[in-house]
Amino acid sequence: MKQIWIITKKELKGYFDSLMAYILIVVFLGLSGFFTWLYGNNDVFFINRATMQPFFGIAYWTLFIFIPALTMKQIAEEYKTGTIELMLTKPVSDWQIVTGKFLSTFLLIVVSLILTLPYYISIASIGPIDHGSVWTGYLGLLLMSAAYISLGIFASSITSNQIVAFLLALIIGIFFQILFGIIASAFSGVAGDFLSYMDMRYHYQSITRGVVDSKNLIYFASIIMMGLMASELSLVKRNLN
């Protein structure tokens, strides 16, 4: 656990030293605030109701784009600079490297979401709000982010090119974000049910509506573990070569 935390702190410090964290936070707060309060026919004032649903809608898509940009360098850069070999000479396992990098990006997302709490407080001050659905909405964003972070780290673990890692993470994400849901409508029976189950939007929207059941939690936990274990396997395979 100590090694994981050391890697997590190092990576988190790297985000802030390179200004990546500041850029993410400013752009995320700007976009989510604009679409929550000011834009079009879905902002809080237009629908005339105290709700965080406009925020959860835009945050879902914003994080979907931002997370591959955060994870693309996580392992790909280590390959390119050769520092991965240096890390592996230390008493640290592949799993600890992957987990430490996962936690650093996840904590950056947690910080970004904490900074949106003034939105919640402001909206709650203008009318009655369903507090339960707000907290489940934040839970949904955290679970969705964790899933895409694990998939992004996997994409970064199979190439030394950060742009390729970004595009791979985005393509994998598009399947979970859009394509599984579309393809599922063309199938029936077990295949259709399986493809529907793989659609991340279905699970996310269930949670943001306040429905937190074991099916949704198992889904996100499975995606997270699958991404992390695939990343570890990729590191092991590369080390053997």
TrEMBL record:
It holds the Pfam family ABC2_membrane_2. It comes from Saccharicrinis fermentans DSM 9555 = JCM 21142. Its main location: membrane. This is ABC-type transport system. One of its GO terms (molecular function) is ABC-type transporter activity. PANTHER family: MEMBRANE COMPONENT OF ABC TRANSPORTER YHHJ-RELATED, MULTIDRUG ABC TRANSPORTER PERMEASE YBHS-RELATED. Keywords: Cell membrane, Membrane, Transmembrane, Transmembrane helix. One of its GO terms (cellular component) is plasma membrane. It is found in: Cell membrane. InterPro entries: ABC-2_transporter_component (IPR051449). The chain crosses the membrane at residues 21-40, 52-70, 102-121, 133-154, 166-197, 217-236. It is a multi-pass membrane protein.
